[in-house]
Amino acid sequence: MHKLLTFHNEKLLRQALTHRSYVNEHPGEAEQNERLEFLGDAILNFLSGEYLYKRHPEKEEDELTRRRSALVDEKQLAKFAIEVGLDFRMRLGQGAIRDGGFQNPNLLSSTFEAVLGAYYLDNNSNIEVVRTIVEPLFDSVSEKIVVSRSNVDSKNRFQEWVQSSGNTNPPKYVTKQIGGQSHTPVFESDVFEVVNGVEILRGTGQGRNKKEAEKDAAENALAKLKKRGL
């Protein structure tokens, strides 16, 4: 059994493995794992950021941010979840299981974050203990894979999400200068998903030029979608 599944408090691990679909079908179950997922996500972002900061002193902020996004994206976290043996230990409702929940990247990645948050609490909020768990996982990811994923523009990734939902309309960006001087302007961009002629605001971003603002808006939209499990 992987060390990440070894707990002093088994109830905490049980909660981390419990998806809300299971609680919906078992009203007597105490808690699902979304609060732990929130905590694990924060811990993972810190540790991955520190990991990349130390290993790539030559990289600037933008590149480090892209690499962090690639290192802890949904697809990669799902692989980590399977690697440590979380897949068939997830506690899912029957509907989620029928829909292929044990292989669902979103459920796998969310559960991994929840278990990580629970492991942190189970070890008296000792970040060093968690670091010994996640750094070997980070080390296992090929540099080639990280670079390849980090080079995928956030605007392209958001458009891919829109298309995956069956929407053939491209995202709409509304971008304008909101401040700054002529030589140091500040732009703001809103990105909308257009569904049946209706514009749905998905994200907002800012940047030093239109391109940066639109990219930031797409990243904001993707982050919101992840939080909603979409």
UniProtKB/TrEMBL annotation:
<feature type="active site">
    <location>
        <position position="113"/>
    </location>
</feature>
<dbReference type="InterPro" id="IPR036389">
    <property type="entry name" value="RNase_III_sf"/>
</dbReference>
<feature type="binding site">
    <location>
        <position position="113"/>
    </location>
    <ligand>
        <name>Mg(2+)</name>
    </ligand>
</feature>
<keyword id="KW-0694">RNA-binding</keyword>
<feature type="active site">
    <location>
        <position position="41"/>
    </location>
</feature>
<dbReference type="Pfam" id="PF00035">
    <property type="entry name" value="dsrm"/>
</dbReference>
<comment type="function">
    <text>Digests double-stranded RNA. Involved in the processing of primary rRNA transcript to yield the immediate precursors to the large and small rRNAs (23S and 16S). Processes some mRNAs, and tRNAs when they are encoded in the rRNA operon. Processes pre-crRNA and tracrRNA of type II CRISPR loci if present in the organism.</text>
</comment>
<feature type="domain" description="DRBM">
    <location>
        <begin position="153"/>
        <end position="227"/>
    </location>
</feature>
<dbReference type="Pfam" id="PF14622">
    <property type="entry name" value="Ribonucleas_3_3"/>
</dbReference>
<protein>
    <recommendedName>
        <fullName>Ribonuclease 3</fullName>
        <ecNumber>3.1.26.3</ecNumber>
    </recommendedName>
</protein>
<dbReference type="GO" id="GO:0004525">
    <property type="term" value="F:ribonuclease III activity"/>
</dbReference>
<dbReference type="InterPro" id="IPR014720">
    <property type="entry name" value="dsRBD_dom"/>
</dbReference>
<feature type="binding site">
    <location>
        <position position="37"/>
    </location>
    <ligand>
        <name>Mg(2+)</name>
    </ligand>
</feature>
<keyword id="KW-0819">tRNA processing</keyword>
<keyword id="KW-0540">Nuclease</keyword>
<feature type="binding site">
    <location>
        <position position="110"/>
    </location>
    <ligand>
        <name>Mg(2+)</name>
    </ligand>
</feature>
<dbReference type="InterPro" id="IPR000999">
    <property type="entry name" value="RNase_III_dom"/>
</dbReference>
<keyword id="KW-0698">rRNA processing</keyword>
<feature type="domain" description="RNase III">
    <location>
        <begin position="5"/>
        <end position="124"/>
    </location>
</feature>
<keyword id="KW-0699">rRNA-binding</keyword>
<keyword id="KW-0378">Hydrolase</keyword>
<comment type="subunit">
    <text>Homodimer.</text>
</comment>
<keyword id="KW-0963">Cytoplasm</keyword>
<comment type="similarity">
    <text>Belongs to the ribonuclease III family.</text>
</comment>
<keyword id="KW-0255">Endonuclease</keyword>
<dbReference type="InterPro" id="IPR011907">
    <property type="entry name" value="RNase_III"/>
</dbReference>
<keyword id="KW-0479">Metal-binding</keyword>
<keyword id="KW-0460">Magnesium</keyword>
<keyword id="KW-0507">mRNA processing</keyword>
